[in-house]
Design brief:
This protein is α+β, with helices and mostly antiparallel strands. The chain has nine helices and 17 strands. The structure holds fe (ii) ion.
C-alpha cells in the first residue's frame, strides 16, 4: 500500500449528483432498514429507490466508490515496468502502471497543467506524456519535463507529482482506493483466500475478453451473479442441469466484505460441466472430483469472479452512474494453457459459451431494472438461496445508510 488522496472530500455537503459530495445520512426508513437487516429467514431486498434514485447513487459514490477498495485491473495486464492500463474510477481517470522498481502504482491520469487526461487504453511507455503541451512524467508520477516553462516564476518541477491512489494486490487482482484511510483488504479476505487456494488465481492470465454495455444499476448485476436460485429460470437448460439451484449454498462470511456461492457440479468428475468449455485442461491445483463445481465470488462492492475446475472468469464491472455500467467478461487461464495453440483455436467456442450464459442473464437484469421503476414495486422477500444478497445488503446498509 502506498499513497493517499487528500484532495477527495468525504462527508461535506452538496447537491447529490455523482460528481459532488453529499452528507451521509439515513436514506432508508426504519421499516425498510429493518426488513433488510433482520435475519435472512425474514429478510427482504433493498427498496426500489436504492437502485433507481440518483440521490441514493450520490451516497453510494461517496461512501462506497470513493472510499472502499475497488478492483480495476489484473496484475497480468501490467507484467513489465512501463506497462499500463487506463481505467476510470467513476469520474477519476486512473493509470495503473508498473514502475521501474517493479511495483504497481495507481496515478491520477490527469495532467497537472491543464487537466488533460494523459493516456488511454493500455500499452507500455518510458514516460507518461501529456498530448496537450507535452509535459512528461516518470513511471512513478514525478514530473520529468515541462516544455517552455522556464520563465514561470517559482515553478519547481521537483515538487510536481501526479496524485497517487492507494494500491493493494490480492489473488492477482489490483485494487485501488481513493479513501485516505481504507483498511488493508487482504486480512479481511483470509477465509476466502483459503477456500480459493486450489485455483491458483494469482497465477492466471487474461486469455480473452467480451464487453457488454449494461444500462442498469450495478447492484442488479452483483445480485444476479451471487445467487443460483435463478438457475431454475433463465439457466434451466444450462446451469440448472450442470449445477442445480438446490445444491447451491453460501459460505458464512462472518461479516467480511465478501460472499462465496458454492454450486456443486451435478455430473461425475469425468463429465464436463459445460460442453462449450470442456476441452480445457484442468487447473493444476483442483481436486479432480471437484472439477465440475462452480464457485462465484463477490468482493464488495464490485469484484465478481467465478471459478471452475478448468478456468476462471472475471466479471469486470465499470460503474458509470446509477443507471449504467460496462461489463467486461474476462476468461482467465493458467499462462501455459493460454499459450497453447489448441486452446487459442478453441477461444471462439469458449467465448460463445460465456456469451451464451451472459445472454441468459441479460433479460433478468433488464427486467428488474424496468420493474424497479414501477410505482407499485416494493421490497421483496429473499429466498434462503439468496444468502449472498443478504450478506451484501448488510454491507450496503452499513456503508450507505448511516
Ligand atoms: Fe445467471
Amino acid at each position: 500500500m502506498s499513497g493517499h488522496a487528500p484532495w477527495i472530500p468525504i462527508g461535506s455537503s452538496g447537491r447529490s449528483t455523482p460528481g459532488t459530495v453529499v452528507t451521509a445520512g439515513p436514506i432508508l426508513t426504519a421499516t425498510e432498514r429493518d426488513r433488510v437487516t433482520t435475519g435472512l429467514a425474514h429478510a427482504s431486498t433493498l427498496p426500489p429507490r436504492a437502485y433507481t434514485d440518483p440521490e441514493v447513487w450520490a451516497h453510494e459514490a461517496t461512501a462506497i466508490f470513493r472510499h472502499d477498495w475497488m478492483c480495476v485491473a489484473r496484475v497480468d495486464q501490467v507484467p513489465r515496468p512501463g506497462d499500463y492500463v487506463a481505467v476510470d474510477l467513476l469520474d477519476q481517470p486512473v493509470i495503473v502502471i508498473r514502475g521501474d522498481d517493479g511495483s504497481i502504482r495507481a496515478l491520477s491520469n490527469v495532467c497537472l497543467h491543464r487537466a488533460m487526461p494523459l493516456v488511454s487504453g493500455a500499452g507500455s511507455t518510458r514516460w507518461i506524456v501529456c498530448p496537450y503541451h507535452r509535459w512528461s512524467y516518470a513511471r512513478d508520477g514525478a514530473l520529468h519535463t515541462a516544455p517552455l516553462m522556464d520563465e514561470a516564476a517559482d515553478f519547481d518541477i521537483e515538487q510536481c507529482r501526479l496524485p497517487q491512489l492507494a494500491v493493494e494486490e490480492w489473488q492477482g487482482f489490483v485494487f485501488v482506493s481513493m479513501g485516505a484511510q481504507a483498511a488493508p483488504l487482504a486480512p479481511r479476505l483470509e477465509p476466502l483466500a483459503e477456500r480459493l487456494a486450489p485455483y491458483g488465481l494469482a497465477n492466471l492470465v487474461i486469455a480473452d475478453t467480451i464487453e457488454f454495455d449494461s444500462p442498469w444499476n450495478w447492484k442488479l448485476l452483483v445480485e444476479n451473479f451471487m445467487e443460483a436460485y435463478h438457475h431454475i429460470g433463465p439457466h434451466r437448460d444450462t446451469f440448472q442441469v450442470s449445477n442445480p439451484a438446490t445444491d447451491s449454498f453460501v459460505v458464512d462470511n462472518e461479516g467480511g466484505p465478501w460472499s462465496l456461492l458454492y454450486m456443486p457440479g451435478a455430473t461425475g468428475p469425468d463429465e464436463p460441466h459445460d460442453g462449450s468449455l470442456s476441452d480445457l485442461p484442468p487447473l493444476s491445483g483442483v481436486d479432480p472430483d471437484r472439477r465440475a463445481d462452480l464457485l462465484a465470488v463477490c468482493v464488495y462492492p464490485t469484484l465478481l469472479f467465478a471459478v471452475t475446475g478448468t478456468l476462471a472468469t472475471w466479471y469486470e464491472v465499470v460503474v458509470h452512474s446509477h443507471d449504467r455500467l460496462t461489463l467486461r467478461i474476462h476468461l482467465l487461464l493458467e499462462p501455459e494453457v493460454a499459450a497453447d495453440p489448441g486452446v487459442a483455436a478453441a477461444l471462439p467456442t469458449i467465448r460463445e459459451g460465456l456469451s451464451w450464459i451472459h445472454g441468459e442473464d441479460i433479460p433478468v437484469n433488464e427486467g428488474p431494472w424496468r420493474g424497479l421503476h414501477a410505482p407499485l414495486a416494493a421490497q421483496g422477500r429473499l429466498s434462503p438461496y439468496e444468502a449472498a444478497i443478504w450478506q451484501f445488503n448488510q454491507y450496503w446498509v452499513a456503508r450507505v445508510d448511516r
